[in-house]
Design goal:
Elements lengths: L4 H11 L5 H9 L9 H47 L3 H11 L4 H12 L15
Length: 130
Amino acid sequence: MRPSVGEALAFDTLEGDAVTLGRVLRRELGWGILSSRTVTGWILNMIEPLLIVGIVIMGTVFYMRAKWRRRARNAARLAARNAMQHSTGLELLARRYARGEIDREEYLQKRSDILGYQVVAPRPSVVARG
């Protein structure tokens, strides 16, 4: 009677051998497709470490890309927050005008007050009808 996989793992562990699940399954299932004695098994045994290394590299790349994207987003938020905190009066006035909080005449008046010179608002052009 053959031992179960669990019994085989326990037996090999008691013996002090380095036990891998693949090694126990190969012994339990016979030589099969994962055997080193078949061409397919030989190729799969060569490709397996490459697949593991590739998966580790891909995981590292995805992690680093996500980390750099998060860092770039945080830097952009911090720059925007600093720009809002350290804005000059003229920049704040321009933002209020862009949001529509003040009209053009009020914008030009306050802008001239900040810059210290008189700005004359342009008159609307009269279109000749004819």
